[in-house]
Amino acid sequence: MIVPTPVSVHGGHSGQFCGHASDTLEAIVRTYIRKGYPWVGITEHMPPASDRFLYPEERAAGLDARALKERFADYIGTCRLLQKRYADAIRIFVGFETETTSGSIALVRELIATHSPDYVVGSVHHVDDIPFDSSQTDYDIAATQCGGLDGLYARYFDQQYEMIQALQPEVVGHLDIIRIFDPDYRSRVVKPAIWEKIMRNLELIKKLDLILDFNLRPLTKGADEPYLSTPILKAAKRLGIAVVPGDDSHGVKTIDVHMQTAIRILRLAGVSTNWRKPVGKRFPQRPNGT
Q1: Domain of residue 227, CATH code
Q2: In total, how many domains does the chain have?
Q3: What confidence tens digit (pLDDT) does each residue in 19-76 have?
Q4: Residue 197 domain flag
Q5: How do 211-215 and 91-97 pair as beta strands?
Q6: Residues of the chain with pLDDT > 90: what percent?
Q7: Structural domain contains residue 44
Q8: Is position 285 within any domain?
Q9: Packing angle, helices 149-167 and 104-115, rounded to 10
Q10: What is the DSSP letter of 243?
Protein backbone atom coordinates (compact mmCIF):
# COMPACT_ATOMS: atom_id res chain seq x y z
CA MET A 1 0.00 0.00 0.00
CA ILE A 2 1.27 3.45 -0.94
CA VAL A 3 1.45 5.68 2.13
CA PRO A 4 0.22 9.23 1.35
CA THR A 5 2.74 11.96 1.94
CA PRO A 6 1.92 14.59 4.58
CA VAL A 7 1.16 18.04 3.19
CA SER A 8 -0.55 21.17 4.47
CA VAL A 9 -2.59 23.48 2.27
CA HIS A 10 -3.24 25.89 5.15
CA GLY A 11 -0.53 26.35 7.74
CA GLY A 12 2.64 27.96 8.85
CA HIS A 13 1.42 30.73 11.17
CA SER A 14 4.49 31.84 13.13
CA GLY A 15 5.13 33.98 16.17
CA GLN A 16 7.27 36.15 13.95
CA PHE A 17 4.22 37.39 12.05
CA CYS A 18 1.20 36.35 14.15
CA GLY A 19 0.50 37.41 17.72
CA HIS A 20 -1.23 34.17 18.74
CA ALA A 21 1.40 31.85 17.23
CA SER A 22 4.96 30.97 18.24
CA ASP A 23 8.42 30.35 16.73
CA THR A 24 10.10 31.92 13.71
CA LEU A 25 8.92 31.27 10.19
CA GLU A 26 12.23 29.61 9.35
CA ALA A 27 11.80 27.23 12.30
CA ILE A 28 8.34 26.41 10.95
CA VAL A 29 9.73 25.65 7.49
CA ARG A 30 12.59 23.56 8.87
CA THR A 31 10.11 21.50 10.89
CA TYR A 32 8.06 20.72 7.79
CA ILE A 33 11.26 19.58 6.10
CA ARG A 34 12.25 17.42 9.06
CA LYS A 35 8.80 15.82 9.07
CA GLY A 36 9.14 14.85 5.41
CA TYR A 37 6.65 17.21 3.77
CA PRO A 38 7.28 17.46 0.01
CA TRP A 39 5.30 20.71 -0.14
CA VAL A 40 3.51 23.11 2.17
CA GLY A 41 1.40 26.22 1.90
CA ILE A 42 2.34 29.06 4.24
CA THR A 43 -0.75 31.19 4.80
CA GLU A 44 -0.29 34.00 7.29
CA HIS A 45 -3.27 36.18 8.14
CA MET A 46 -3.84 39.31 6.08
CA PRO A 47 -3.74 42.64 7.92
CA PRO A 48 -7.05 44.12 9.07
CA ALA A 49 -8.93 46.48 6.78
CA SER A 50 -8.96 49.12 9.53
CA ASP A 51 -8.10 49.62 13.19
CA ARG A 52 -11.68 48.68 13.98
CA PHE A 53 -10.78 45.03 13.34
CA LEU A 54 -7.67 44.79 15.49
CA TYR A 55 -7.59 41.79 17.80
CA PRO A 56 -6.88 42.34 21.53
CA GLU A 57 -3.41 40.80 21.19
CA GLU A 58 -2.58 43.32 18.45
CA ARG A 59 -3.85 46.27 20.46
CA ALA A 60 -1.87 45.05 23.48
CA ALA A 61 1.27 44.94 21.33
CA GLY A 62 0.73 48.56 20.29
CA LEU A 63 0.03 47.67 16.67
CA ASP A 64 -2.40 49.29 14.29
CA ALA A 65 -3.65 48.46 10.80
CA ARG A 66 -0.77 50.32 9.14
CA ALA A 67 1.86 48.52 11.20
CA LEU A 68 0.23 45.16 10.48
CA LYS A 69 0.22 45.93 6.78
CA GLU A 70 3.95 46.60 6.99
CA ARG A 71 4.45 43.38 8.93
CA PHE A 72 2.51 41.53 6.25
CA ALA A 73 4.88 42.87 3.56
CA ASP A 74 7.79 41.66 5.71
CA TYR A 75 6.11 38.24 5.94
CA ILE A 76 5.80 37.94 2.16
CA GLY A 77 9.42 38.96 1.66
CA THR A 78 10.68 36.57 4.33
CA CYS A 79 8.62 33.70 2.98
CA ARG A 80 9.94 34.30 -0.54
CA LEU A 81 13.51 34.16 0.78
CA LEU A 82 12.79 30.89 2.57
CA GLN A 83 11.10 29.56 -0.56
CA LYS A 84 14.37 30.02 -2.44
CA ARG A 85 16.65 29.01 0.43
CA TYR A 86 14.98 25.65 0.92
CA ALA A 87 13.90 24.96 -2.67
CA ASP A 88 15.97 21.77 -2.80
CA ALA A 89 14.29 20.37 0.31
CA ILE A 90 10.64 21.43 0.07
CA ARG A 91 8.28 23.22 -2.27
CA ILE A 92 6.80 26.23 -0.48
CA PHE A 93 3.68 27.98 -1.70
CA VAL A 94 3.59 31.55 -0.40
CA GLY A 95 0.03 32.49 0.39
CA PHE A 96 -2.16 34.30 2.87
CA GLU A 97 -5.46 33.83 4.66
CA THR A 98 -8.24 36.34 4.17
CA GLU A 99 -10.60 38.00 6.57
CA THR A 100 -14.21 38.77 5.69
CA THR A 101 -15.11 42.18 7.11
CA SER A 102 -16.11 45.59 5.81
CA GLY A 103 -13.32 46.67 3.47
CA SER A 104 -11.60 43.29 3.35
CA ILE A 105 -12.43 42.37 -0.25
CA ALA A 106 -10.82 45.55 -1.60
CA LEU A 107 -7.78 45.02 0.65
CA VAL A 108 -7.37 41.40 -0.48
CA ARG A 109 -7.33 42.55 -4.08
CA GLU A 110 -4.79 45.24 -3.23
CA LEU A 111 -2.54 42.72 -1.45
CA ILE A 112 -2.75 40.35 -4.41
CA ALA A 113 -1.83 43.12 -6.83
CA THR A 114 1.04 44.30 -4.64
CA HIS A 115 2.56 41.01 -3.50
CA SER A 116 1.56 38.40 -6.15
CA PRO A 117 1.12 35.48 -3.72
CA ASP A 118 1.11 31.95 -5.05
CA TYR A 119 -2.43 31.48 -3.78
CA VAL A 120 -5.05 32.65 -1.30
CA VAL A 121 -7.02 30.87 1.42
CA GLY A 122 -10.51 32.33 1.71
CA SER A 123 -11.64 32.35 5.34
CA VAL A 124 -14.39 33.91 7.43
CA HIS A 125 -13.73 34.82 11.09
CA HIS A 126 -16.41 37.52 11.49
CA VAL A 127 -20.15 37.65 10.99
CA ASP A 128 -21.43 41.13 10.21
CA ASP A 129 -18.06 42.47 11.39
CA ILE A 130 -18.31 40.70 14.78
CA PRO A 131 -15.46 38.26 15.48
CA PHE A 132 -16.73 34.86 16.57
CA ASP A 133 -13.83 32.41 16.79
CA SER A 134 -11.51 33.91 19.42
CA SER A 135 -13.64 33.31 22.53
CA GLN A 136 -16.95 31.95 23.77
CA THR A 137 -17.91 35.51 24.70
CA ASP A 138 -17.38 36.80 21.16
CA TYR A 139 -19.24 33.78 19.78
CA ASP A 140 -22.21 34.45 22.05
CA ILE A 141 -22.28 38.13 21.08
CA ALA A 142 -22.28 37.23 17.37
CA ALA A 143 -25.06 34.69 17.93
CA THR A 144 -27.17 37.20 19.83
CA GLN A 145 -26.81 39.72 17.01
CA CYS A 146 -28.05 37.07 14.58
CA GLY A 147 -31.04 36.04 16.71
CA GLY A 148 -29.52 32.77 17.91
CA LEU A 149 -27.21 30.01 16.75
CA ASP A 150 -29.28 29.01 13.74
CA GLY A 151 -29.21 32.61 12.58
CA LEU A 152 -25.46 32.79 13.19
CA TYR A 153 -24.84 29.72 11.03
CA ALA A 154 -27.12 31.02 8.29
CA ARG A 155 -25.44 34.41 8.18
CA TYR A 156 -21.97 32.84 8.28
CA PHE A 157 -22.63 30.60 5.30
CA ASP A 158 -24.20 33.50 3.39
CA GLN A 159 -21.09 35.64 3.97
CA GLN A 160 -18.87 32.72 3.05
CA TYR A 161 -20.76 32.35 -0.22
CA GLU A 162 -20.35 36.06 -0.95
CA MET A 163 -16.62 35.84 -0.18
CA ILE A 164 -16.15 32.85 -2.49
CA GLN A 165 -18.02 34.62 -5.27
CA ALA A 166 -16.00 37.80 -4.89
CA LEU A 167 -12.51 36.34 -4.43
CA GLN A 168 -12.61 32.83 -5.91
CA PRO A 169 -9.80 31.81 -3.53
CA GLU A 170 -7.75 28.81 -4.55
CA VAL A 171 -8.50 27.23 -1.15
CA VAL A 172 -11.59 27.64 1.04
CA GLY A 173 -10.44 27.58 4.66
CA HIS A 174 -12.11 25.66 7.51
CA LEU A 175 -15.54 25.76 5.89
CA ASP A 176 -17.52 24.96 9.05
CA ILE A 177 -15.49 26.87 11.65
CA ILE A 178 -18.76 28.49 12.69
CA ARG A 179 -19.35 25.41 14.84
CA ILE A 180 -16.32 26.25 17.01
CA PHE A 181 -18.15 26.88 20.29
CA ASP A 182 -21.35 24.95 19.55
CA PRO A 183 -21.58 21.56 21.32
CA ASP A 184 -24.68 20.73 19.26
CA TYR A 185 -23.15 21.41 15.87
CA ARG A 186 -23.71 17.87 14.58
CA SER A 187 -27.47 18.27 14.68
CA ARG A 188 -27.39 21.94 13.66
CA VAL A 189 -25.41 21.61 10.41
CA VAL A 190 -27.96 19.16 9.00
CA LYS A 191 -31.00 21.30 9.75
CA PRO A 192 -32.63 21.84 6.34
CA ALA A 193 -32.31 25.64 6.29
CA ILE A 194 -28.61 25.45 7.19
CA TRP A 195 -27.75 22.37 5.14
CA GLU A 196 -29.24 24.04 2.05
CA LYS A 197 -26.75 26.90 2.42
CA ILE A 198 -23.85 24.50 2.98
CA MET A 199 -24.72 22.58 -0.19
CA ARG A 200 -25.08 25.84 -2.12
CA ASN A 201 -21.55 26.81 -1.03
CA LEU A 202 -20.14 23.38 -1.87
CA GLU A 203 -21.71 23.49 -5.31
CA LEU A 204 -20.09 26.87 -5.95
CA ILE A 205 -16.74 25.52 -4.77
CA LYS A 206 -17.15 22.62 -7.20
CA LYS A 207 -18.17 24.94 -10.04
CA LEU A 208 -15.10 27.13 -9.48
CA ASP A 209 -12.86 24.06 -9.02
CA LEU A 210 -11.48 25.20 -5.67
CA ILE A 211 -9.81 23.16 -2.93
CA LEU A 212 -11.39 22.50 0.46
CA ASP A 213 -9.12 22.77 3.50
CA PHE A 214 -9.46 19.68 5.74
CA ASN A 215 -8.44 21.69 8.76
CA LEU A 216 -6.86 19.91 11.73
CA ARG A 217 -6.88 22.81 14.17
CA PRO A 218 -9.89 21.48 16.16
CA LEU A 219 -7.99 18.28 16.97
CA THR A 220 -5.28 20.28 18.74
CA LYS A 221 -8.00 21.66 21.00
CA GLY A 222 -9.55 18.30 21.87
CA ALA A 223 -12.37 18.18 19.31
CA ASP A 224 -13.50 14.87 17.82
CA GLU A 225 -13.17 15.77 14.16
CA PRO A 226 -11.54 18.35 11.92
CA TYR A 227 -13.26 21.04 9.94
CA LEU A 228 -14.94 19.50 7.74
CA SER A 229 -17.49 17.67 9.86
CA THR A 230 -18.49 14.23 8.59
CA PRO A 231 -21.66 15.09 6.60
CA ILE A 232 -19.89 17.97 4.87
CA LEU A 233 -16.90 15.79 4.02
CA LYS A 234 -19.23 13.15 2.55
CA ALA A 235 -21.03 15.77 0.49
CA ALA A 236 -17.73 17.15 -0.81
CA LYS A 237 -16.70 13.63 -1.80
CA ARG A 238 -19.98 13.08 -3.68
CA LEU A 239 -19.46 16.33 -5.56
CA GLY A 240 -15.88 15.44 -6.45
CA ILE A 241 -14.34 18.44 -4.69
CA ALA A 242 -10.61 18.28 -3.97
CA VAL A 243 -10.02 17.99 -0.21
CA VAL A 244 -6.51 18.53 1.14
CA PRO A 245 -5.23 18.50 4.74
CA GLY A 246 -4.32 21.79 6.39
CA ASP A 247 -2.69 21.67 9.81
CA ASP A 248 -3.42 25.36 10.51
CA SER A 249 -0.23 25.19 12.57
CA HIS A 250 0.58 28.03 14.94
CA GLY A 251 4.08 26.90 15.90
CA VAL A 252 6.39 23.95 15.50
CA LYS A 253 4.57 21.94 18.19
CA THR A 254 1.39 21.75 16.12
CA ILE A 255 3.01 20.65 12.87
CA ASP A 256 2.24 17.07 11.80
CA VAL A 257 0.67 16.12 15.16
CA HIS A 258 -2.67 15.00 13.70
CA MET A 259 -1.71 14.44 10.06
CA GLN A 260 -1.97 10.66 10.14
CA THR A 261 -5.42 10.95 11.70
CA ALA A 262 -6.47 13.25 8.86
CA ILE A 263 -5.09 10.90 6.23
CA ARG A 264 -6.89 7.96 7.81
CA ILE A 265 -10.23 9.83 7.90
CA LEU A 266 -9.88 10.94 4.29
CA ARG A 267 -8.95 7.47 3.07
CA LEU A 268 -11.90 5.90 4.88
CA ALA A 269 -14.15 8.52 3.26
CA GLY A 270 -12.80 7.57 -0.16
CA VAL A 271 -11.18 10.96 -0.75
CA SER A 272 -8.19 10.98 -3.09
CA THR A 273 -4.86 11.36 -1.32
CA ASN A 274 -3.18 12.38 -4.56
CA TRP A 275 -3.15 15.85 -3.08
CA ARG A 276 -3.87 18.75 -5.38
CA LYS A 277 -1.41 21.59 -5.04
CA PRO A 278 -2.75 25.11 -4.39
CA VAL A 279 -1.37 26.62 -7.56
CA GLY A 280 -3.08 29.94 -8.07
CA LYS A 281 -4.88 29.98 -11.38
CA ARG A 282 -4.70 33.77 -11.50
CA PHE A 283 -0.94 33.88 -10.94
CA PRO A 284 1.75 32.86 -13.46
CA GLN A 285 4.20 30.12 -12.53
CA ARG A 286 7.52 31.44 -11.25
CA PRO A 287 10.75 30.48 -13.03
CA ASN A 288 11.83 28.13 -10.20
CA GLY A 289 8.58 26.15 -10.49
CA THR A 290 6.87 27.64 -7.51
Answers
A1: 3.20.20.140
A2: 1
A3: 889 999 999 999 999 999 999 999 999 999 999 999 988 999 999 999 999 999 999 9
A4: yes
A5: unpaired
A6: 90
A7: yes
A8: no
A9: 40
A10: E
